Amino acid sequence: DQDRIPDSYERRVGLDPKNPDDAGEDPDEDDLNNYQECRIGTDPFDPDTDDGGENDGSEFFNQRNPHEPGDDVVKPPRLVAIPGVNRTIIRYTLPILPGSREIKDVTYTFEIQRCLGLNGEFQVQQAVHHVTDTILYQYEDTAIKNGQLAKYRFYSIGPNGERSAPSNIVTVTPTIDPYPPHGGIVINDGAPSTASTLANLRLFANDGFDPEYDFPGRDEYDPNSEVSGVSDMMISNFSDGSDGIWEPFSETVEDWPLMPNQSDIATVYAKFRDSAGCVSELYLASIRVLEPTSTPTNTETPTSTPTETGSPTMTPTSTPTVTPSETPCDIGDDDFDLNGDNEVNAEDLLELLEAMANDSTDPKYDFNCDGKVNDRDSSLFATKWQLTIEP
After folding, report:
1. Which CATH number is correct for 79-172, 2.40.30.20, 3.40.50.1000, 2.60.40.10, 3.30.40.10?
2. SS3 of 265, please?
3. Which residue, 213, 216, 276, 357, has most beta carbons within 10 Å?
4. Distance between CA 338 and CA 387 in Å, rounded?
5. DSSP E strands: which ranges in 145-207?
6. Do 79-172 and 182-212+226-289 share a fold?
7. Rg (CA), the chain
8. Are 165 and 55 contacting, i.e. CB atoms less than 8 angstroms apart?
């Protein structure tokens, strides 16, 4: 395409070898056009080829090596965006400079850029001169209104005009209700275990301001905010929510299918969303799923039918017998006091754990009468923890 950039280079880095105009373009905004990037061997789609923090153009024009991260003199901050009522708050870090283990006595200037809408262009808002002993590491934008989506990015500017690569881009939308719901989830009214893989869930959520919400001390409740109300919930058996869907909030869910892991522990996750779109943190509850024990049944041993003979007559009787596999599990509180000191304590637990480690089959430790001494017995033991036995 006669743009002085070899076709092989253009194909390798993702440029168009048939476009004669891309030589003067700067897609990564590092102040080097594609032709210059080709000449010095940097990536035209990466503003910081060596990942040292300073952008390629700043290094090149200040006679440093854009392929050597150790000579970079500025780094970008990391950003977190927080929505407010007709405002946005952008929190940022103070990056440690290369070759330094601390940020003491380092002066920073940040160039703040904002983009309105998903497809808008970034515009410089202002430059913030920042000294490390300043307490408030945040920028507040009050020139934005509720429902208006905005994206932000920062650049670090050095004392001699050095320029960092861009920070991460954060997206935020101010809202009349900036506070997420808070709540929780309970399985089977808080029971520690169950013999069924179907459970009843109880959920509770509130969209009012949570005084325990993790705000730094400089944040206060915004009196201009409104409570939009909890509208939706997502319930899942996986922490990433991959099997969950947003559905209208309900305080109860019946027959939720549990998915126990290899340790027979089933965990259910829940999060909540309000009408303003704010999503809560992830809440969870767990329960142990036990194998159901067999119910003992009586069987009658047949006796001879009395006959009309001269022999003495016998009154028929039924003798209940219990098959060995159906032996009743008659376990009382005192059976958990393994060392007989009238208290279920750590000494009893250690004895039980030793029996489990030795694969014991001693009925003394088999609290659920399944012929095994395992974690199901320790689960039952946990329900009696610190129980005092009356002598």
Report:
1. 2.60.40.10
2. strand
3. 276
4. 12
5. 150-157, 170-172, 182-187, 193-194, 198-206
6. yes
7. 35
8. yes
Cβ–Cβ under 8 Å, residues 269 and 238: yes
Closest C-alpha to 204, from 279, 270, 277: 270
Contacts of 86 (CB under 8 A, 6+ apart): 142, 144, 145, 146, 174, 224
Q: What does DSSP say about strands 182-187 and 198-206: parallel, antiparallel, or unpaired?
A: antiparallel
Beta strands at 193-194 and 283-289: parallel, antiparallel or unpaired: parallel
Secondary structure (DSSP) of 33-58: -HHHHHHHT--TT-S-TT-SSB-HHH
Token output for 90: 């952008």
Residue 300 pairs in a beta bridge with: 320
| Phi, psi values for residue 284, rounded to 5° | -150, 160
pLDDT in tens, 344-382: 888 888 888 888 888 888 888 888 888 888 877 877 888
Is pLDDT above 90 for 265? yes
CA separation for the pair 157, 73 (Å, rounded): 10
pLDDT > 50? residue 318: no
What topology is assigned to 182-212+226-289 in CATH? Immunoglobulin-like (2.60.40)
Amino acid at 329: C
Tell me which residue of 177, 168, 176, 238 sits closest to 210, measured CA to CA.
177
Amino acid at 6: P
pTM of the model: 0.62
Tokens encoding 266: 């089933």
Amino acid in the structure at residue 7: D
User: Domain spans of the chain?
Assistant: 7-46, 79-172, 182-212+226-289, 333-382
Structure tokens belonging to residue 73:
């003199």
